[in-house]
Amino acid sequence: MSVLKLDLWSSEFYFNVGTHSIRRTTFFGLFLTISAIASVLFYFLYLIHLYFSNLIDPQFRQQNFITDEKKEVPLTNDLIGFQFYYNLSTTLDQYQASQNKTYLVYIAQFYYQDTNNNIYNTIYLNTVKCSDPQLKGFICIDFTQASNYTYLLDASNSNYVYSSIQINIYGCNDLDTVKTTIPNNCAAQSDVEKLINQADAYFYLKLKTQQFNTTSKMIETKYRTIYNYVQSNQYVLNTLYTQKQDTVVYSGLWYQKQEKFSSPIQYNQITQHFDRNIGLANGLGPYSQSELLMDEIVKQFQIEYPTIIKLLTLVHAVAGLAMLTRLLGRFYSQSVTKQDFLSLFLQNIYNQKYENINLHNDQLNQKTDCPVQIPIINQSFQNKMSVFYTQNQTIDNWFKNNPIDNVEDDCMTHQKINNSFNFQINSQKPQIKEQKERQQVNIEYK
């Protein structure tokens, strides 16, 4: 099989013989064909490489909804981490250990309420050292005693069920409805207040968040950091509304599978300040209380990775651009086809003259003293022949009056033939013009 049959940009022409056609292939068209196919194939392989390297951004949709439906998060020990800092580098635990005295006391509570069923439960929780590396040096809450509950909000069915998590910071000597005991090694109240009013003292919270990483295709756990500052004469209430996120991920090259994730993602803080002495008199007076409540806003994410169909769509767009080379290839093929038809016309109708012309051109090509005259017979002659193809006897008359059967092998003979041909062409111009005018008159008359 000829390699030129691979030329997809060849031109076609028909002879009205059934449905058969002939294609004129060219090496230039073959080059354009190979270039277009190679470009499309390279781009397809490039997209496949990007896909398996996870470098193609997926479709990402996000919506926020305010809903009454049930929203809940499991209670885990790594949900919250907290620590009170005496200064920028020293924690409260480190300072109390160095002084061998207790200044502040943490009291963690879990509150659950079900209005329709008249359930109002408050559970005291223990605090432990955090085991998560991201919470190193922090204190976590042990939810073992609240293992039957979840951190939730449910306002459906005309009911209001919710739970909250509370972290209270009391002075060692304080007493109210929540803190009912005093440790044995308490520091003096003046020393406690001095620690609380320290310029660099602050309460540090770390709250768990999770989100889907589109690059690694994994759920990543990070912690939101919140700083609170307290004063000895104030009761600071920090309410933290937890927004939950629901993520749906569609992935797969051929068949897409669905994965769902749910976790806290954002915390909105509202801070209020009260007079602490009035609070203690009313039965509730910590220096600081951080309360976590579930927010009614839910963030919904939908992540969809591309399939092979979408990759082929991108390839199709590039293939459309590559098809522009077809115009150039077919234009070139058609021009070559016209030259082939002219040569075929000369070979079949004026076969002997055509052979003499080719013989004369071969003889001129062997000459070194007149290279400028080489292309005249070959190209100029054929072009002029095509001009007079529609005139019945022009070419015959020219060959009868100017025989070139015996061509002399020199440049002078070539020049004579060319001059003679030009003379015949110029002499025929008035006749051609007159014949065209007659044809125009006949057409108008009809």
Give a written overview of the molecule.
- With 446 residues, this protein is α+β, with helices and mostly antiparallel strands.
- It folds into three domains: 76 residues; 242 residues, no CATH class; 97 residues, no CATH class.
- The protein is 36% helix and 32% strand.
- α1 packs antiparallel against α5, α6 crosses α7 and α7 runs antiparallel to α8.
- The longest helix has 35 residues.
- The two termini are 55 Å apart.
- The C terminus is likely disordered.
Topology, please?
Blueprint: E1 11-13, E2 22-24, H1 27-52, E3 59-66, E4 71-73, E5 80-85, H2 92-99, E6 104-114, E7 119-129, E8 139-142, E9 151-154, E10 161-171, H3 189-196, E11 202-213, E12 218-228, E13 234-251, E14 257-275, H4 276-281, E15 288-304, H5 308-322, H6 324-349, H7 351-365, H8 374-387, H9 394-401, H10 411-445
Parallel strand pairs: 13-15
Antiparallel strand pairs: 1-2, 3-15, 4-9, 5-8, 5-11, 6-7, 6-10, 7-8, 9-10, 10-15, 11-12, 13-14
**Regions with pLDDT < 50 over 5+ consecutive residues?**
15-20, 368-396, 402-411, 439-446
Quote the distance from N terminus to C terminus.
Answer: 55 Å
Strand percentage: 25-35%
> What's the Cα radius of gyration?
47 Å
The biggest beta sheet is recorded as: 13 strands, mixed
Indicate how many domains the architecture comprises.
3
Assign the structural class, choosing from mainly alpha, mainly beta, alpha/beta, alpha+beta, or little secondary structure: alpha+beta
Number of strands: 15
- Average pLDDT confidence is 78
- Helical fraction: 25-40%
Shape: rod-shaped
Number of helices: 10
Write down the secondary-structure element order: EEHEEEHEEEEEHEEEEHEHHHHHH
